[in-house]
Write a structure and sequence with these properties.
With 331 residues, the chain is an alpha/beta fold. It folds into 2 domains: 173 residues, Periplasmic binding protein-like II (D-Maltodextrin-Binding Protein, domain 2); 137 residues, Periplasmic binding protein-like II (D-Maltodextrin-Binding Protein, domain 2, 3-Layer(aba) Sandwich). Helix content is 33%, strand content 20%. Strands 1, 2, 3, 4, 5, 6, 7, 8, 9 and 10 form a 10-stranded mixed beta sheet that branches. Strand 5, helix 5 and strand 6 form a beta-alpha-beta unit. Helix 5 packs across helix 8 and helix 9 runs parallel beside helix 12. The longest helix has 14 residues. It is globular. The relative contact order is 0.18.
Length: 331
């Protein structure tokens, strides 16, 4: 399905309410009685929850023959997912590639204690660094954030880290900015109520939070990153790359057209000691029915099987590597 699949039969963009319904994650059938393995993801309106639900839906169509099924668990995001999976409280999780790299190297929230037991299962969608502001605020670039109120998520989150990276790239001293640390779930309401001037959210597109923000009484715009800022950020973090945010899913935004920014890959991961056959069967189902998997959410459209089998900063799980080699997607 192309992005035009998100147009109605008259060729018009769907209203936000209808789009929100389409983006809602699938509900697991209570009739399924097989043992469940959980995928810890993110908040209900975010990309991780939708991606985890897509994996579970594709696998569960044929899961009965393997005697297991998958469920999606809501969570607080990448750092929490890494700790939850390593603690054995979930079988799989989704995290940004740079967070997995930090954990495996013992940086950031895991300073001095490398988490060497992480293994990649599948690389997923691109998480784009998104700066959202109101159209009645004089914010056109990162440098305009000087003196503004910005929500950057919880300490230790990727949004929090990228805020510091962007401000440094644009030459904005942190002491000139007023930061708040609310969840991205609350950021849209805070922006609409004028409690903040902008928020930073690293997420796959389209997502329900931005739909909510853009369809309120106050008009919103997305702030692009200039070429020097993108180049500087990439020089600081080798897992970042240039990407564009498509705005056709957000017809209520003040301006349309692709928004240039930076992105990082989201990765489905597990523990090194999870059974090889479990991971093999999961990867087999997703890659064998890859077109169906992509149709579960537009952010998955650009993903290719080759990218799904690579692009991770941690070693692949043996079960994932085995199927990717059999499919000719790994040497």
């Amino acid at each position: 399905m192309s992005r035009l699949g998100w147009l109605n039969s008259a060729g018009l963009l769907l209203p936000a309410a209808a789009l929100a319904l389409l983006l809602a994650p699938p509900v697991a059938s209570p009739a399924m009685q097989q043992p469940a393995l959980s995928i810890t993801s993110g908040n209900l309106t975010g990309a991780y929850y939708a991606a985890a639900s897509a994996v579970a839906k594709v696998y569960n169509r044929a899961g009965a023959q393997d005697g297991m099924r998958f469920t999606t668990a809501e969570s607080e995001g990448s750092p929490a997912n890494i700790d939850t999976v390593l603690a054995g409280q979930a079988a799989f999780g989704i995290a940004q590639a740079d967070m997995l790299d930090a954990a495996s190297q013992g940086r950031g929230p895991w300073e001095g204690t490398p988490r060497t037991g992480l293994r990649a299962v599948l690389s997923l969608h691109v998480e784009a660094l998104t700066i959202v502001t109101r159209s009645d605020h004089a914010i056109q670039s990162v440098s305009d954030l000087r003196g503004k109120r910005i929500n950057i998520g919880a300490p230790g989150s990727s949004d929090h880290q990228y805020a510091g990276l962007l401000l440094a790239a644009a030459g904005v001293p942190p002491e000139t900015v007023t930061f708040s640390h609310h969840s991205a779930v609350l950021a849209a309401d805070l922006l609409q109520s004028d409690a903040i001037d902008a928020y930073i959210y690293t997420v796959g597109h389209p997502n329900l939070s931005l739909i909510e923000a853009s369809t309120g009484p106050r008009k919103m715009r997305l702030i692009p990153l200039g070429t020097p800022v993108i180049a500087w950020a990439m020089a600081q973090n080798h897992l970042l790359f240039p990407t564009d945010i498509p705005t056709e899913y957000y017809p209520a935004l003040l301006s349309q057209g692709s928004v240039h920014t930076i992105g990082v890959r989201a990765v489905l991961f597990t523990r090194a000691d999870l059974g090889e056959e479990v991971v093999y069967r999961l990867v087999r189902e997703v890659l064998t029915h890859f077109a169906l998997f992509q149709r579960q959410h537009p952010m998955l459209y650009p993903l290719t099987p080759q990218a799904a089998c690579g692009s991770a900063p941690i070693p692949p799980h043996p079960g994932a590597a085995r199927f990717c080699r059999e499919a000719g997607l790994l040497p």
